[in-house]
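SEQUENCE-TO-STRUCTURE ENTRY
===========================

Subject: a protein chain together with a token-level encoding of how that chain folds.

Sequence line: the amino acid chain in single-letter code, read from start to end.

Question of interest: how does this chain fold, as expressed in backbone structure tokens?
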Amino acid sequence: MTHANSLKPNNRIFTKRLFWYFFISLIIQSITAYGALIIFNALPSSIVGLPDDDVLQRNAHQGTVFLIKQQIKNSPELTTEEVLANLQPEFGLKLSLITKKRKFPADITQELAQYGIAYDDDEEMIYARLDSGQYLQLGPLVGDSVLDSHILPLSIYLILFAGFSAMTFCTLLYFSFSYLWRDAKNMSATVDELSKGNLKVRAKPAQSWLFKQLAGVINTMCDQIEKLISSNRIILHAMAHELRTPLARMNFEVEILTNTHDETQRQRLMRDINNDIKELEVLINTSLSYFKIQQTQLIKDVSTVSVNEWAIDIINNLELLKPQDFELTYQFDDEIIHIDKQLVETIIKNLLLNSFKYAASKASIKINQQGELLFITVDDDGPGIPPEARESVFLPFSRIDTSRTKSTGGYGLGLAYVKLIAESCQGKAFVMTSPLGGARFVVTLNFS
């Protein structure tokens, strides 16, 4: 209900803005239309393809002037003024007679000399030379251009033109931006729900090209946040379970200690309590280290190493931790690679220590480069990991069956570290069935 109500003000805002866009567009379109008319009217006829006004008016009134001249010629008993006075009621234009003394502008004089008739654009008059040497004046003419109209008709024309143009523009604007508006509201509602703790919320697929990528990014972010919080909850529950065991032992040991007077037993209980305290310290410190790495981005120190020499040194350093009569084989590419030695060494050590604990008698490790990816593969002949547990085996404090119990040591953080480092290096860690019969752990890393 809250989300639905919050969308109503947004719709009103969109409608209000669309109205203002229409109003502003109306003004701009009016100014643009008037300016376009002025510019078009000022262009020469060679560009616009229309004859000049003087040519149009001259041709339009040439017949009228001829008939008036014929009427004057056919009425010798009347003066020119009387003939014009008799014809005036039949004309919508004023007919006047100009004496020879009238001086015309140069262009009018030139047209009169060339054609016998001329059009004065400024005065909106037609002039024609009579046989008597006088001049006939017709006008002023009624304007034939929109620009010659009165302010009211011109304003009506501009408003109609701009109104239809603005409506067309705003209609296109509405259909163009309504998708953007809906997608933006969808993104905003998704982020709002996410901020309220709804980790299941996802953005709907965006309809506009502008938000398609953003919707995918938001949904990826939601997936990562949900996964991170879910993982942290599992870790916290598992950590709480791990803490209960030494705490319960300490509580039992303290109770016995307060009721016993046997000095030998008291010394043994004190040692057990001290061991439990150390176990708690190790558990807390390793858990905090894991959380720290999980919450921060690892800073990689990439350097050049020779795989063969560097990896063999790591295996030799683990020789003392290898079980007796345990067979460890390895296969390394004899090439130079660019890696963070410390991070990759941590992965190799954890995978090998894991195989030392759970393999029956042998394991193998292979390191090779394929393109930009570095592959680390460790096989063992242990009990293996069932398919349904191959995801959870990388969770902290994870133990999937009795063959991988607390008696083997550790807290189940080794493989969790491996996956965490792999993902921070644009890679991944997964487990499958080994050709040796046990588990095959594969880690890919990308330091490019």
Observations:
- Residues 327 and 362 are 4 Å apart (CA to CA).
